[in-house]
Amino acid sequence: MTDADVKTLLDEVRAQMNKALDHFENELAKIRAGRASSSMLDGIDVNAYGARTPLFQVGNISTPDARTLTIQPWDNSLINEIEKAILQANIGVTPQNDGKIIRLSVPPLTEERRKDLVKQAKNEAENCRVSIRTARREANEKVKKFLKDGLPEDSAKTAEITIQNITNDFSAKVEKHLEVKEKEIMTI
Question: How far is CA 82 from the centre of its chain?
Answer without folding.
Answer: 23
